[in-house]
Design brief:
The complex is a heterodimer of chains A (414) and B (255).
Chain A: H1 16-19, H2 21-54, H3 84-117, H4 122-136, H5 140-154, E1 176-178, E2 181-184, E3 186-189, H6 198-233, H7 240-257, E4 260-263, E5 266-268, E6 271-273, E7 276-279, H8 280-307, H9 310-318, H10 323-353, H11 365-377, H12 380-408
Antiparallel strand pairs in A: 1-2, 2-7, 3-4, 5-6
Helix pairs in contact in A: 3-4, 3-8, 3-10, 3-11, 4-8, 5-8, 6-7, 8-10, 9-10, 10-12, 11-12
Chain B: E1 13-24, E2 27-38, E3 42-46, H1 53-60, E4 68-73, E5 76-77, H2 82-91, E6 92-95, H3 107-117, H4 123-136, H5 152-164, E7 170-174, H6 182-197, E8 201-205, H7 209-215, E9 218-223, E10 226-231, H8 233-238, H9 243-253
Parallel strand pairs in B: 3-8, 3-9, 6-7, 7-8
Antiparallel strand pairs in B: 1-2, 1-4, 4-5, 9-10
Helix pairs in contact in B: 3-4, 3-5, 4-5, 5-6
């Protein structure tokens, strides 16, 4: 006699689409997809019909037409005769400039404030608490206005530096803080790359960056060798002096060979000339984004360090490991897992919040493409779509990189 | 194996605690502790929760500070001098209730970390040492896994091996089996019994009374920060002197 263990095979019935767990979720997904397609079709159809009724057509031809306006803060060549596309690029670069600058300073500020807030020193930790609570609880918009207001009202105008008895003087004789911005000495390569000019300076800096990259790999070789020696003999050789030499000597040699000189800004006519001008709007944006987001990062850093259980420190201490090494070998590697993901969303916030730049007249992409170009050409839909695409691509790139990092450092569990 | 408790104890003093007091704020956790531990001695500390057992052994390797009295480990006086603390910590190993393995490092890296960075052992030697102790706790095949991939009992055995890699003269155990399932308790206790057979000086905070009977030279009962009673295991369990000890024993042995 045989015993049948398989359940009797049921033939497929239509009611199983809703009542059988094998088919139910599939059925619901198909229904949802159909509904979604219908909604999208309705919206697209609606937009097309209304645009046609208004006599509006979608076209990106305006990007090639001359922009017809000036931008005073720019990283690439641009005149009012340049195209709208170039104006957009100037804006994109300005957005990325202020975003990158603010990301760097906000991180430094945040890490310091976060670590110091955990300090045993009562005064230091309270000061950091005050910093965090004040800056993260007042809107960014107000900080931008306050900093810009202070800069333009309190700092002297360039003409205050003029005359036999000027009411303002240059800082250490080389930098001028004015209500139009800060003028600092600009580096120029006087030899090899020919006369001064944007191109030669650009090449010079590219070579300098290449040298730094070389130093980076050189330093890695030195550190790997140190690790090898430690693995073989147990004693890690001192690498600080060698590392410093590798980082700085080639660069200094390059600067001497190319005759790096700094051009000090001087008062010419109504304004300063020579050197580098950092406009008041850029400084206001940079500072405001840094101190505001720095307060958030400080809290992330504090949370990350506190998230590592005290038992880890105790276990490492009981093994005789010194506090500095406990921090670098045990606490930080674990804290970083907690710190990095919210840190990335703070970087995204900085990038997107930089669109407030229009408030103080900083020519970011929202001000050029989404502001003047939009108003002059009337191509609102195209401009806004391009703007959204730009922010989306930048943000997705940043979070993509973050995800790769997160996956590479994930804790292994069963 | 049951004869571990009869093993010889040397006259050499390993730990000497004199008139030690400790407060948490105004709370008096340890009162007038006097304790001498000889080389090779195995001591079990028991008592109700909050009686200061863990705090006592955590004072021995300076995880907690004491405010009064003195602690000497192998002739080194425990003070705020970092050199002395380093010296004592390199001679005293410790296992925790929650293992406290480093989750971001593999088992092998957990074991080699301290020998490499504290003892300055070459990596190869440190790894050989680590494998030796992993074999001793019977899990050499787990060397390349991460702590999160191991069972609780295995993790605690790794923690024991990690301490042994520093080749300590004294081992402290802070409720090593309280966070484990009954099945896993045995494998950890077996490891500790083996360690005792090798002549390791041990102070063990635990409620495993079977372990105490089998391994300990001395059982110490603590209550409210004081050492209430100490005796050889047989005497301690069969003929407890103080009423507090009798009550405690009747509660934990009563079922």
């Amino acid at each position: 006699m045989t015993i049948m263990t398989d359940p009797p095979k049921e033939s497929f019935r239509l009611s199983m689409l809703l009542n059988d767990s094998r088919y139910r979720s599939l059925t619901l997904q198909v229904i949802a997809a159909i509904l979604l397609a219908l909604v999208i079709f309705y919206l697209a159809n609606n937009v097309a019909t209304n645009l046609a009724a208004l006599g509006v057509s979608i076209s990106f031809d305006f990007l090639g037409a001359p922009a017809g306006y000036d931008i005073n803060q720019r990283l690439i060549e641009y005149t009012s005769q340049s195209s709208n596309l170039q104006a957009a690029f100037v804006g994109i670069l300005n957005t990325m400039l202020v975003a990158v600058l603010a990301c760097i300073t906000a991180t430094i500020l945040g890490v310091f404030a976060g670590v110091l807030r955990l300090s045993n020193n009562w005064l230091v930790s309270k000061l950091m608490s005050i910093y965090v609570e004040i800056f993260r609880n007042i809107p960014l918009l107000i900080w931008i206005l306050v900093i810009y207001g202070v800069m333009t009202v309190v700092l002297p105008a360039p003409n205050a530096f003029r005359g036999d008895d000027p009411s303002a003087s240059m800082f250490m004789g080389i930098s001028a803080f004015t209500n139009r911005g800060v003028y600092i000495p600009g580096p120029e390569f006087s030899r090899i790359f020919g006369e001064t000019g944007i191109l030669s300076a650009g090449i010079g800096w590219l070579v300098a960056i290449a040298i730094l990259v070389g130093s980076f790999f050189g330093a890695r070789i030195v550190n790997k060798r140190a690790t090898r020696i430690q693995e073989a003999t147990g004693v890690r050789p001192a690498t600080l002096a060698t590392n410093l030499a590798i980082w700085f000597l080639p660069l200094i040699a390059f600067f001497i060979i190319t005759g790096l000189t700094f051009v000090v800004p001087v008062l010419k006519g109504f304004n300063f000339g020579g050197g580098i001008k950092i406009g008041a709007p850029l400084i206001a944006m940079w500072l405001a984004l840094s101190v505001y987001t720095g307060a958030f990062i400080a809290e992330n850093v504090r949370a990350g360090i506190q998230a590592v259980s005290k038992g880890q420190t105790e276990a490492a201490g009981a093994l005789g490991i010194r506090p500095g090494r406990i921090m670098s070998l045990i606490i930080l590697p674990q804290a970083l897992r907690v710190i990095i993901p919210p840190m990335i969303s703070n970087f995204l916030n900085i990038t997107k919040n930089s669109s407030l730049a229009i408030l103080v007249g900083y020519a970011d992409v929202t001000a050029t493409l989404g502001g003047i170009t939009l108003n002059q050409t009337g191509r609102a839909i195209e401009c806004v779509v391009l703007l959204m695409l730009f922010y989306l691509i930048i943000s997705l790139t940043i979070s993509g990189v973050a995800n790769v990092y997160n996956n590479s450092t994930k804790l292994k569990e069963r | 194996m049951a004869e571990v408790a009869k093993m010889q104890v040397s006259d050499e003093v390993a730990i000497s605690i004199r008139n030690m007091n400790k407060w948490y704020g105004t709370f008096h956790v340890l009162r007038d502790i006097d304790l001498t531990v000889h080389q090779g001695e195995r001591i079990v500390v028991c008592g109700p929760s909050g009686s200061g057992k863990s705090t006592l052994i955590r004072c021995i390797n300076a995880l907690e500070e004491h405010q009064q009295g003195s602690i000497e480990v192998d002739g080194t006086l425990l003070s705020s001098d970092l050199k002395n603390i380093d010296k004592i910590r390199s001679e005293v190993g410790m296992c925790f209730q929650h293992f406290n393995l480093f989750p971001h490092l593999s088992i092998l890296e957990n074991l080699t970390l301290a020998p490499i960075w504290v003892r300055k052992t070459p990596k190869k030697e440190a790894e050989e040492l680590a494998m030796h102790y992993l074999e001793k706790v019977k899990i050499p095949d787990q060397a390349n896994k991460f702590p999160g991939q191991l069972s609780g009992g295995q993790q605690q055995r790794v923690a024991i091996a990690r301490s042994l890699c520093m080749q300590p003269r004294i081992m402290l155990f802070d409720e090593p089996t309280s966070a484990l399932d009954p099945e896993m308790i045995k494998e950890v206790l077996d490891t500790m019994i083996e360690l005792a057979e090798d002549g390791m000086t041990m102070i063990c905070v635990t409620h495993e009374m079977g372990f105490a009977r089998q391994v300990a030279n001395r059982v110490i009962f603590m209550d409210e920060g004081q050492i209430v009673e100490q005796n050889e295991p047989e005497e301690f369990f069969n003929n407890p002197q103080s009423p507090r000890t009798q009550l405690f024993l009747s509660q934990i042995l009563g079922h």
